[in-house]
Amino acid sequence: MNIHHLFLQRYDALAEFWIGDLWNKVSEEQLRSRPHTQLNSIVWNLWHITRVEDAGINRFVVDRPQVLFEGGWFDQMGVPYRHHGTGMTLEEVNHLSQTINVEALHGYWQAVNLRTLEIIAQLVPESLDAVMDSERLQVILVDEGIARPNAQWLSEAYHGWTKGKCLMHFGLTHSYQHVGEIAAIGSVMGLNIYDV
Length: 196
What we know:
Blueprint: H1 3-19, H2 22-25, H3 28-32, H4 42-61, H5 67-70, H6 73-77, H7 90-99, H8 102-122, H9 134-143, H10 154-158, H11 163-188
Helix pairs in contact: 1-8, 1-11, 4-8, 4-11
């Protein structure tokens, strides 16, 4: 099995079932709801998953512009943040949850999904051995504003990562972590989001 097939075995399930079905199963009110003051909303998680995948794969793995800016999604969603949400305060999470344009977020998620599939189809496996250096991390996370000022520790956390590790983390493991959070939020609201 090659890297393309291996990645897609888990990515297709993520896109089609774990996230793809949410847009039809959960109402906009439920997406925006924060059932406890210490919990994020489902819509915040969807935004965060999408931002991390967009920034992580396009900027770390293949050095392409983010879909966020190419498709005008920044303005369409009405979210004033360039970053991907790590380190946001609960007040900021609440504001995003209540004001984001959910239909535009869905469109942005679909566009990021298509871009990721395009990248995987063209991926040269040998390129995944390249290691992210500190200067490149600084440019992406700090200069480009992907990390919030209070989350610049991510430069140190990602130091030494290969592009392959970035692909697997930003495209799969990070998203699945937040799918678990979405299930927990739904459970607190009395929803059986994932009937498996």
